[in-house]
Each structure stands twice: as structure tokens, then as C-alpha cells.
Design goal:
By secondary structure, the chain is α/β, with parallel strands linked by helices. It is built from eleven helices and eleven strands.
Length: 329
């Protein structure tokens, strides 16, 4: 079961000054005060990029040079060089890539457990123990190079329970909600130092029917997720969302897609600030090259629109003070 340690995805957050605010030094643990991230007593603003493959490549000595290269490239930015790098690390994947929850279900099945779908990951007692064992192994692991346990490493900003948690067998959201409650408390019992979030895509559920009807892609209503309820527990420190407009609305024209991005971001940032009263991270966005009518100019428009909206919300309307944007795909 030691191979469970390597079933992780990574996202890098580069700390930097933002809208003229002086950033804090990068040593120390990131915490939060209400809707604001805090580092060494100062507001913490950040930008960055996703690098889901880093942990996988790090397991092979022949490919570890890629990790060195990506960090060297990241720290060549002036602000990154000055204040350093922080990591956000999901603990498992909803999808089959790198094993995901399917691998846990397969292990349980090989031990004679009666499991019928990958969503038994959330409710089978044996599988839940597998996950908890993974959490304990991962967080207590001592880094080979630094000799510091992962749970004691300030270079990590936060853990995420899962990348894009979904539970389609229970559209009510009760199964996923119970799992998040249980696992959030467990992770915090092992590691009280780091922040914790869900890894959520941002789909609304029955706790906010107006948002569910006005913002959700239709397909999102079948995945058993609830942006408000799933983040509205004490052990979850900040909200998470993705913006996959290219995946969710492949037939939309570019202008309609950009209009959706605006509504999606504004709605979630307002809810995080005023309802959840927690920071929020936009952890994934972009325009895939396989999107119909893809052009590099359209991709640039998605990036520009996203950053302009975040800047407008923060600088002009003074919302989103706890927002972090990770570079898109």
C-alpha cells in the first residue's frame, strides 16, 4: 500500500505582491483570518500554475530533472525569486488518472469487499480506512532530502481532500457531504499546521437552489456536489472552484463562454466572501486545444477575461480579498 503515497496531483502557488500590496516572506505556514489568507502576519496574495504530473515524475530518478527544471523556471520570476513557492497538494483524484478513487475500489474488491461502483469509495468502511492510511502515510512521511515531515513543511500551503470530488450515485449530495465531514476532521487531526480544502469544481447543490439553477452546467446537477454545503464546515479553511467552461459548454460560441466565466467567478467570489466568509481559490481554468473552434487568440481571451474579472472584483469592488488564481491549462 505504500504506492498510495504517489497518487497525488500538485498545484504550485507562487507568492507575490498584488495590486501594490507588499507580500510577506515565504517562510512560515499560510493561515487565514476570515476571508483573508495570512503569511507571517501579512496578507498573502498569490498566482501560479497547475503541475499535476510533478509527484509522478518525482518517483523516477530518470525523470526528476523535470522537477528541477520547472521550479527553476518558476523562480526565474522576480517576485517568485524574492518570496518563494508554496504548494497545494490534493490527496487523491476523483478520476482514474494516476489510480484515483477507482484504484481504492479495486483494492477493496481484491480483498473480497462487495463494491458495485467507484463511488463506493465514499461509503465503504474498508475503502475509507485505505484513504485514512494513505493520509497518515503521506502527511507523516519524512522528506528524503529535507528530513522534514510533510505535515511540518511550511513550503506546503494546503492539502485538498480530492481533485474534483463527485458522487453520481447520490445526487442529493448527502454521501459526499458525509465523506467530506469525516475526512476533513481526520486530516486536521493528523496535520493541524496546514490549511485544508476540498478540491471542489464549484458546482452548486440543493443548499443554494437559485445558484444551482442559474449557474450550474446541466450535467453538474447529477454529481452530488454542493459548493456551499461542502465548504461550510469548520475543518475546511477555504473554498475551491474550477472554471471548465470549455469542457462544460463545448458548443457555446466564444462570447457566450466568456460571459459565463464572468457570472461563474463573480457568483463564487461573492458567496465565498459573504456566505461562507472564507477565501476562495480558482484552481483551474483555460481553453483546451481540443475545444471546437479553438484558436490561440481565444485562449488568450479566456486568460485575459479571467484575470480582469479577478482584478476588477478586488481592486474596484473590494471583494475577493482572499482569492488566489492558479494559471490555467
Amino acid at each position: 500500500m505504500k504506492c498510495l503515497c504517489f497518487i497525488v496531483l500538485l498545484a504550485i502557488v507562487i507568492a507575490q505582491s498584488y495590486v501594490g500590496v507588499e507580500a510577506a516572506p515565504s517562510d512560515g505556514f499560510v493561515s487565514r483570518n476570515g476571508v483573508q489568507f495570512i503569511l507571517n502576519g501579512k496578507p498573502f496574495y498569490a498566482n501560479g500554475f497547475n503541475a499535476y504530473w510533478l509527484a509522478y515524475e518525482a518517483t523516477d530518478p530518470a525523470t526528476r530533472f523535470k522537477i528541477t527544471n520547472v521550479f527553476q523556471n518558476a523562480t526565474s520570476l522576480a517576485e517568485a525569486k524574492r518570496v518563494g513557492i508554496k504548494l497545494i497538494i490534493p490527496l487523491v483524484n476523483n478520476w482514474d488518472d494516476y489510480g484515483g478513487k477507482k484504484q481504492y475500489v479495486d483494492w477493496a474488491r481484491s480483498k473480497g469487499e462487495m463494491v458495485s461502483s467507484n463511488d463506493d469509495f465514499y461509503r465503504n468502511p474498508v475503502i475509507k480506512e485505505f484513504y485514512k492510511n494513505h493520509v497518515k502515510t503521506m502527511l507523516n512521511r519524512v522528506n528524503t532530502f529535507t528530513k522534514v515531515a510533510y505535515k511540518d513543511e511550511p513550503a506546503s500551503m494546503a492539502w485538498q481532500l480530492m481533485n474534483e470530488p463527485r458522487c453520481g450515485v447520490d445526487r442529493s449530495g448527502k454521501t459526499l457531504m458525509a465523506w467530506i465531514n469525516e475526512m476533513a476532521l481526520f486530516v486536521k487531526s493528523v496535520d493541524p499546521n496546514h490549511l485544508l480544502s476540498t478540491g471542489h469544481e464549484g458546482f452548486y447543490g440543493d443548499s443554494s437552489p437559485e445558484r444551482k439553477n442559474s449557474l450550474n452546467p446541466v450535467s453538474a446537477n447529477t454529481v452530488g456536489a454542493d459548493f456551499i454545503a461542502n465548504h461550510n464546515i469548520d475543518a475546511i479553511d477555504f473554498a475551491s472552484m474550477h472554471c471548465g467552461s470549455d469542457l462544460w459548454f463545448q458548443r457555446l460560441d466564444q462570447n457566450s463562454r466568456l460571459a459565463f466565466i464572468k457570472r461563474w467567478l463573480e457568483g463564487h467570489i461573492e458567496d465565498a466572501q459573504n456566505n461562507l466568509k472564507k477565501p476562495v481559490i480558482l484552481a483551474e481554468f483555460g481553453l483546451g486545444s481540443d475545444t471546437p473552434r479553438y484558436t490561440l487568440a481565444n485562449r488568450d481571451d479566456v486568460f485575459t477575461t479571467t484575470y480582469d474579472i479577478i482584478y476588477d472584483i478586488y481592486a474596484k469592488r473590494r471583494l475577493g480579498r482572499g482569492s488566489i488564481v492558479l494559471g490555467g491549462y
